[in-house]
Amino acid sequence: xxxxxxxxxxxxxxxxxxxxxxxxxxxxxxxxxRETTFDxxxxxxxxxxxxxxxxxxxxxxxxxxxxxxxxxxxHTMATLAQRLTELGAAAIAxxxxxxxxxxxxxxxxxxxxxxxxxxxxxxxxxxPSVLSFTQNPNSLVLPQQAKAGFAMxxxxxxxxxxxxxxxxxxxxxxxxxxxxxxxxxLDQENTGIPRRLPLLWSNxxxxxxxxxxxxxxxxxxxxxxxxxxxxxxxxxxxSLRIGDITVPTxxxxxxxxxxxxxxxxxYVSARNLLADDYASLAPQIAGNIxxxxxxxxxxxxxxxxxxxxxxxxxxxxxxALEQMLTGVYxxxxxxxxxxxxxxxxxxxxxxxxxxxxxxxxxxLGFSIMVALVTTAGSWxxxxxxxxxxxxxxxxxxxxxxxxxxxxxxxxxxxAERRRIRNAFAHYVAPSLLTQIExxxxxxxxxxxxxxxxxxxxxxxxxSTISEKTAPTDLVRMLNTLFxxxxxxxIEQMGTIDKFMGxxxxxFWNAPVDVERHALRACQAALAMREALGQLNQTNLSQGAEPxxxxxxxxxxxxxxxxMGFEARFDYSCVGETVNVASRLEGACKTxxxxxxxxxxxxxxxxxxxxxxxxxIALKGMSEREPIHLLLGPEALATSxxxxxxxxxxxxxxxxxxxxxxxxxxxxxxxxLAAFDTRLPAFYDAIVTRRADFAPDMPTN
Length: 700
What we know:
Layout: H1 2-25, H2 28-44, E1 54-59, H3 61-67, H4 74-86, E2 91-94, H5 116-125, E3 129-135, E4 149-153, E5 167-168, H6 172-177, E6 180-183, E7 196-198, E8 200-202, E9 207-209, H7 211-220, E10 224-229, E11 237-242, E12 245-248, E13 254-256, E14 267-269, H8 270-273, H9 282-285, E15 289-294, E16 302-304, E17 310-312, H10 313-326, H11 334-358, H12 360-385, H13 392-425, H14 430-438, E18 446-459, H15 462-468, H16 471-491, E19 495-500, E20 503-508, H17 517-541, E21 549-565, E22 568-574, H18 576-591, E23 595-598, H19 599-604, E24 609-616, E25 625-632, H20 634-637, H21 640-657, H22 663-672, H23 679-686
Parallel strand pairs: 1-14, 1-15, 2-3, 2-15, 3-6, 4-10, 21-23
Antiparallel strand pairs: 3-5, 7-13, 8-9, 10-11, 11-12, 16-17, 18-20, 18-21, 19-20, 21-22, 23-25, 24-25
């Protein structure tokens, strides 16, 4: 029992180790499951709604309908910037790109016209404005210098920042006029759902802040951003300081976004700001950090949030800024991944031991309890500490461990059942066991007449071998012999009836129909001959006596079924065909050949290599039995050497039956039979048993 439990534990440990390696590799499906779990946590408990001085000037559908289709002229954008400055905005961050000159500017078509780009640049310069640019891998342009200054502690963090390989930049005229310049790209993975916002980006030589960071810097009047590196000097980032506000970050300077449902009052329609009564918006704008962005679906800046709702891209910058101002963050430090693996390992080991010592049913209850505790712990960590502790992998791993261990326990139990069944199959044929299992009514006395092919096999020199062999070695030898002979019979769909001392009895075509059962039996006999030859080679190399067997095969009707009495019976066959096969096996000693078959069997396997061996008087039989030698398979029967032997053999039989000495024919047959080492002894025996070939003639 303890060995079984040890193997079960080792199996469970291997499953756990494999899952740990999988978690360490962290393939895409595991990341999706983890982040989807975190999304679900946020949906259950979104961030609280604070009252903060942040607004979004929204280029919405109604604004487009009233002002006109996008893009609006820079004159209109200048008006927005001027009025926001006039109303006292603390910072004006444009989540809108201005990469090309305004095609609507009159200066583009008439000399002396107003340059809308210059007008917009002047409006930007007059207020606390922030322009944005985005990552564009297809662009050859890169930002050269950030508006903000940077101070960095620790090792150089630039290699750890997301890399800008190209950028869609605002016109230099506008960028120079703006107070700040920030990156508006929401993520570096383009997953479709922004969950982490890079607060810093790199062009390889310089750092650039995200739009939300730059808007806060401008609103606070700070000139420098302080990047606090890891104290171990690994180059990773621990936090970012903006004025007096310190924002904890991930190793690459990213922020886990904690979403809330933005109140409609956060949005101010752009059309209202461009209306004549815009001054009424002063209470909503004064002292606020204002983002200018678009929610109109046609402008393609709508993203899916973890809360399961579509939101304008500009609102995601607002979500990040609110976290900075309230100090409410989600934390997934480097050590969290290791803690998740440890939780899974302990859970997996506990489930493994529970199943080993209590069984799958109680183990299932324990696994469910482990799953509930793991989920509750992750939820508690999220609610109380903002800690993103992933329960999904632990749950998946627990499910896999439970399923694997339950399967292992089932496999062990099934293997034991099969072992018992196989042990019983030594007495009852496996095919019969299956039939009995499927039909309990077969467990009764009685039998049916069927056409069978019956085989008897016996060790020729068993007495001599037993005299020279210790009993334990003799048993070992018989087990080995019966193993190879039995395998050959079973492979040819035979039913092993019984082992009798050094003999084997088998039959074909019962309890299930076997097509061409006589051929199957002969093929089994040939396979037994070959297997015995290989076994003898091994025995000779070990100094053991070689083993010889005789095989008798007969085909015909026999009674087959359960024989015995109600308390104990056996599935076997009886009848003349069985007796003939048994006597034929004994006749191998007289004929001096190892495989003899009856005429009925020969007629059913004409494609094999067979030779007429005359007829022989069998003990207990009133008439002589015609017999045949089974030399080999179909390949031998079609060979030239067998054809020559068969022709000479036929001439020999004619001569013997004519009462002639036939010495020349015997000598010729012996010469042609060189390919079969057993045949010369058979031809030598013909001299002493001529009457078997011509029973009506006197023996010469």
